Structures
1.
Amino acid sequence: MIRIDAMWLTALTEFGIEVVKLESSLTAPDPENGRHLRTRRDQMGHLADWFD
């Protein structure tokens, strides 16, 4: 599954769906979308490891 927010991951497991692997999106941050992606990670709980 491509990484999304933690709430989806929790919901899937609560419905009995086993998530066996998480993959990062192929889209990396750039000057135009970096702020947006940080906001999604920090305020919405999206699982993003681009800034680690």
2.
Amino acid sequence: MTQTGLEAAPPERDADPAHTAAYIAALTKELAELARRSELEVVAYLLEIVHLEAAGPIAPAGRMARGRLRR
């Protein structure tokens, strides 16, 4: 376990999307809890939104939306 409490190591540059999303979900959950304890409500809310997005299934529609953002 690391100093942050996360058991998983950061994903490698070429890691699969599911592993990267799981790591982001775990990290943002911890950060949201930290923000909430420090009464940073907006920051906590935004981190929770990121957590929910990363923890959800990786759907083809999500990949298509990300592709549109890059253009």
3.
Amino acid sequence: MPTSGPRTIISAMDDRGLLHRIDDDLSDTWIEEWAEGGMQAIENYLAKHLAFLSFLDEASA
């Protein structure tokens, strides 16, 4: 089956908006932004865990 031409991975990624820019990783604040995102994820996880433990305590009382 003939195609209209080769389709590169880069253009396919760009069409869907998934092209990664290395400039974002090289910014002066990348480590702070990365750590902030990680800390937020941990805090969200711990809040859910605490809510579940509170639920179990109330259910057993």
